[in-house]
Amino acid sequence: MKxxxxxxxxxxxxxxxxxxxxxxxxxxxxxDAHNDLFQEIxxxxxxxxxxxxxxxxxxxxxxxxxxxxxxxxxxKSKRQVQTxxxxxxxxKIQAHEYDDTExxxxxxxxxxxxxxxxxxxxxxFLYLEDKSYKEIxxxxxxxxxxxRVKMNRVKTxxxxxxxx
Length: 164
Known about the structure:
With 164 residues, the protein is mostly helical. It has two domains: 1-77, RNA polymerase sigma factor, region 2, helix turn helix motif (Rna Polymerase Sigma Factor, Chain: A), CATH 1.10.1740; 101-164, Winged helix-like DNA-binding domain superfamily/Winged helix DNA-binding domain (Arc Repressor Mutant, subunit A, Orthogonal Bundle). The protein is 70% helix and 0% strand. It is built from seven helices and no strands. Helix 1 runs antiparallel to helix 2 (31-48) and helix 5 (118-128) crosses helix 7 (144-162). The N and C termini lie far apart (57 Å).
């Protein structure tokens, strides 16, 4: 029985692991922190999995557990060592034929998003994942109207950050 439960969980986790990686990328600055957070989220998903009733899609439930774990872990962490983000390191060899315009725009956007509070980060993340306001509200445990209002406020904050 437990073996079947474990196999099903592993299959679902493997299928939807990009959700966890995206959340880790949003809440961490380096590979070690990313891997640590991924491991912690996986542990929390496994602990909570026996209680998963299937009322919502697995991916929606996974978003909720992963976001709550990331937010809780980094709120509890009182000591933070300043690290340099891997993607900001300048390398000596650069390919000149590569157009990194889109990549640079994404870096700027992620930098702006990282300046938001934890709940706003989660909200914009789900929005950028093309989740409906219904799915966002279910994942974050707020009303659909509240999700829309908060999203408008987050968009305004991002505009101010990006265009001071």
